[in-house]
Specification:
The structure is a homodimer. By secondary structure, chain A is of the alpha+beta class. The first copy, chain A, has two helices and three strands; from the N terminus they run αβαββ. The interface between A and B is large, with 42 and 42 residues.
Chain lengths: 86, 86
């Protein structure tokens, strides 16, 4: 399965709501050694970078961090504001 | 299916090779309107940010961009260098 089909599966469920969305997923596999856990700090900087390209409201950002063994997945979901057409 | 299970499925295939890996996925849904395509520029800046946290060799970065309709997925795979224990 390609990563694109994963997101297309997700898309179908929410196809009725036509909003611009940006999803960032950071997956970190630490290979069993004592690597530092920098994902939370990294996340803040990534959002700062994205803010340079699109206007983001802090309220529209949803962050989820999942951990299992040496594997860590940070998921950031951003619903972008409506364009200025209203 | 959670995004974590997607990555765990991937992990099993390559479990023999114990390397530290970082995967970034940027999924952009444009909601049918004429939004600018900023993912390639964004990708460069994201890699710059990550370089502040971990040493990355340019050769170890693999980038893949998939597009379909108004949906665009940028996948960046980074194999991190071995630690200084050898």
């Amino acid at each position: 399965m390609s990563i694109l089909s994963y997101f297309f599966g997700e898309k179908k469920k929410t196809a009725n709501v036509a909003r611009e969305r940006l999803q960032i997923i950071l997956a970190h596999e630490r290979a069993g050694r004592d690597a530092p856990d920098y994902l939370p700090q990294l996340q803040k900087e990534l959002i700062d970078v994205i803010s340079k390209y699109v206007a983001i409201n802090a309220d529209d950002i949803k962050v989820q961090l999942e951990k299992k063994d040496d594997f860590e997945v940070l998921e950031v979901n951003i619903v972008l504001p409506e364009p200025a057409r209203r």
